[in-house]
Every structure is written in structure tokens, then in C-alpha cells.
Amino acid sequence: MDGQLLSDTFVELTDTMVADFDVIDFLHVLTDRSVQLLDVSAAGLLLADQRGELRVLAASSEAARLLELFQLQNDQGPCLDCFRSGRPVTAGDLAAEAARWPQFAPTARQAGFAAVQALPMRLRDQVIGALNLFRAGTGAFDPGDVRVGQAMADVATISLLHERNMRRSDTLNEQLQTALNSRVIIEQAKGKLAERLGLDMSQAFSLLRDHARARNLRLSDLAQAFVDGSEPLTGPAADARVRRRTADDSVRPGGGAVEEAQQLHRDGHD
Amino acid sequence: MTDSRRATVWGLVAEQAVLRGGPVAAADACTAAVAAVGVTGAWLTAPGGGEGGHLMRVTDGVSERLAELELTLGEGPSLDAAASGGPVLASDLGARDAVGRWPVFAPAACQAGVAAIFVFPLRIGAIRAGVLGLYRVRPGSLSAAGLGDALIFADTATLLLLDAQDQATASPGAPAGAGGQPVGLARHRSEIDQATGMLTEQLGVGIADAFARLRAYAYGNDLRLTDVARDIVARRLRLRPDLGLPPDGEA
Known about the structure:
Low-confidence stretches of chain A: 245-259
Low-confidence stretches of chain B: 170-184
Strand order of the largest sheet of chain A: 2-1-5-4-3
Strand content of chain A: 5-15%
Helix content of chain A: 55-70%
Order of helices and strands of chain B: HHEEHHEHHEEHHHH
Structural class of chain A: alpha+beta
Oligomer: heterodimer
Mean pLDDT of chain A: 83
């Protein structure tokens, strides 16, 4: 384990005092550093929003984000079990978990994951969410990794509760809801563009992202303008990008999806 | 837990409609929110009627004054909420950060007796249905439960306003679902959002109309909204511009 990165991470996860603190960026630090520091392939995070509903608020990859969504949609999976019990949940071999999670286990394996560890985001009696770690290979999770993962989740939880309870609960709540709405706008724009150009959702996202980058716009702003009709997003450049992207994706399936999660992170979600 | 909160909120909104003696409308969500969330007053605006929107409901004179102030001054929490797409929660209008944010509006609101203001944009992604505003005469944040309830009142008002707009334009409509509750606010909804975006192209309509057609199709065919959305995203189902029905043989 990278000791320097580990100590830097703990600083990042306590440093909520910065003026431009953004809760979504903060949660992405937790999922991204989990993948960098621990022997895991991907990480996803569910957090209860102010309505009391669990939401996917960060993921290190699109595959992890979709698996978190899948758990919510099917009301089943390790992250939900962990959230409800407030206890860690582990499965070293998802092939043996068909009885426990009849829908989640095969779907996670199909996505390329063989083992899963869920860690609660909990302070005393209050459970605010859960961090899911996914690994491609089977086998028990290293106890040292689990301890570090839990420690990161604990520190992040304390920081968030501190924000929520003390100084900046209003800002934090505004940011969470704004981010959730931005995600909805991006999904609407993906649908519109996919239908217009005959793309799949991942290709549509890549094209939106390319436009946002080329024009130096926030992705959610571009998506809003496209859905409103004030941004046509057409022309020879767009067509050429679609052809190139399609070719890329046939060589590297799923690559666009991982970039999507990264771009969403960079974009700052408003 | 949340489902029961949603049901409780819906019950309070429906009760207001009964007291008022009319069909359930977004204005009832505005009225019911005051006591349930624990605020002094509330107002509700819908798009149209100028930049600040059309004032649909005020529960008292101070609420009306707040809505007017924003229109007059061109600054304030509703305008910020419309720009960001998220709520604006100002728990102390006399505090330095609030005055820095709204140098004219904040002191004027304080003078009208308002100490805290909480504004919720009525939005589903790019769909804009209006704004729900709440105010208090004493400073302080909403409690966690109060904020959760306010968001659910805003969700309810959003769907009721969209239904009202839909009926006003005489398109197929998106009627109430089981128990008279508005359908459409599924919790985990990326496919619903993607399908709504796809329908803007298939039907040649705006995003709000596309959402109304999606809901109307699900309701009219007694299907779950998420199932219809999934079929549209998987391109197993297309809707036609005229009737919102699938082409022959593709349902």
C-alpha cells in the first residue's frame, strides 16, 4: 500500500474546511482512493439523501455505478444489506452467493466482478450510507485492506456529519440536490442524443463529453442547453466523432463508460 | 420509511384539496407544506407570465411580498434556485453571507419580517415546473425531517403542476395512479430520464411533453413506468408523434 497516498487521503477526507468544498467531489475521493489504495477493481457509494432515499452518489467506474443502481432497483445486494444492518458484508466468491442475492450475484459476475465487500458509513447509531468494494478475482478480502477501507469510510462519515450538523448543512444539502438534478439532466440529454444519432447511451455520453470539453463547458450546462434546444450539437464534427467513437468502442468495449464516470467527477456535477 | 413519508405527504395534500373543495392541485401542496414542514408561510410559482413566473399560490401577505420582491429586484433565492437547479436554503437572512449573496433582497426581506427562506425548484432534470418557496420569521435551518418533507412536497407539487399544464394543452394527459397519487417519481430512474430524452426526438416535442407522454402511455396501458422506459431505451418500443401509440405490431 502506498503510505504517502494513504496519509494524503486521510487529509483529503478530513479537509472539508476549504472554501470550495463540494460534497460530490468529496465522495469521489473516497471511491477513487479505495481503488488506488486497496486491492479492489472498483468502488461505489450509496448515501441516503434528505428524503431518506438511498442514492448512488459516487463510483470509480460506470460498471460500479450501474451495479449500485441495480441494487437499488432490485432492492437487493451487499450495499443494501450493509446499509440496513450497519455491519460490514462480505462475499469472497459471488458464484456461491446465488441464494443470498439471486439477482445481484449473477449481474455482478456478468460485469466482471467475483468478490464484493460492503462497508458501512456509520457513526454510532447513525448509518448514512455504504461503500461497496468490487474485485475481479475471487478470495477473501485482505483484513488489512478492509481495516483501511473502513477507516476511510469512518473518516468520511465523520466529516460529512460534521458538515451536516455544524457549519454548512445548508450548502451541503443544496449541493447534494443540485448534483442529483444535474445527473437527471445528463441522462435526459443522453437519451435525446442517442435517439437522434442512433447511438447507444455510452456513445451518446462520449459525444456530449467531447463537446463539453471542446467548448470548455460544464457537462450539465451543455446537456441542459441540448435538451432545451438552444444547443443543436450537430454538424460534420459531431458526425465524425460518432464514427470514430463507434470504431473505438468496438475495439475497447465499455471504455466509454469508465470515462463517463471520470468525466462526471471532473465536471464537478455543478 | 420514505414510501410512508410520501404517502403521509400525499394525504396532507389531498386533505387540503378536500378542505378547499376542488380536485387536488399543486397549490394544495403549497398550503399543506406550511404546517407539515413547520414554516410561517409559503408560495408557489409556475413558469409563464414573465421572467419570474406566474404566482399560483401564496399562504399569506408576507409570502406574496417575497415573491414580488424577487420580481422587482431581479435577485433572490428563487432566481438562484432556477439557475442552479437545486434548492436554496438561507437559514439566516441577516447573516453576512446572505447579505453578500443578495445585497438588496436580503435586507428587504428582513424588513418584511422574514428571517429564513427555503426555496425548492420544481424540476425533473431539464423539466421546469416552477418554484416552491417557504419562509420563517425566526432564523434557523430546517430540521433533517423538515427538509426531507419539504423535498417530498416539492416532488408532489412538481407532478401536479406538470399534470395541470398537460391538461391545459389538451394532450393525452398523465393521470393519477393508484389511490389518486401522481405517478412518475420513481426513485431510481436513469432509464426513465433516458427514455424521456429519446421521446423528445421520437415525438418532436419538448422535454416536459415527452415526460407527460411517457407517463400517459404507461397509465393508459396499465404498465409500470420503469418497464415502459426500459422498453424504449432498449428500442423495443417507439411512440408515434400523433397518438403516443406504438406502431402496428410493435407494442
